[in-house]
Amino acid sequence: MPWKECNLMDERIKFVGRLLEGEKMTVMCREFGISRKTGYKIFNRYKELGLDGLNDQTRRPLRYANQLPFQLESRILAIKKSTPPGVHLRSEKN
Question: Which site from 3, 18, 44, 46 is most exposed, i.e. has the minimal number of CB atoms within 10 Å?
Fold first, then answer.
């Protein structure tokens, strides 16, 4: 038996459509072969964003823990370029 070809977006639309018609989440998730957590995630994205919410979302982090803000990084690099070689900047302690 050949594999059934399917489009992920079409499957998500079918899933959400049947939920909107009143079918139960547990039964739908079992039929579509996904976890209930994934089913609720898909349905909540649809409720929040409409059809655009059914597209794959980026997995890129919103921010990077060790990355400096652009303005601070630019200022540090400007100071570094303006300082002659061999001179070390230190904060004065009282």
Answer: 3
Helix axes 25-32, 8-20, angle to 10 degrees: 160
Mean pLDDT of 64-78: 87
> Residue 43 falls within a domain, yes or no?
yes
- pLDDT category at 74 given cuts 50, 70, 90 is very high
The domain of 22 spans 8-54
Q: Is the whole model's pTM more than 0.85, yes or no?
A: no
Question: Could you give the number of structural domains in the chain?
Answer: 1
Digit-coded pLDDT (tens) for 18-59: 999 999 999 999 999 999 999 999 999 999 999 888 888 887
71 in any annotated domain: no
Residue at 41 is within a domain:
yes
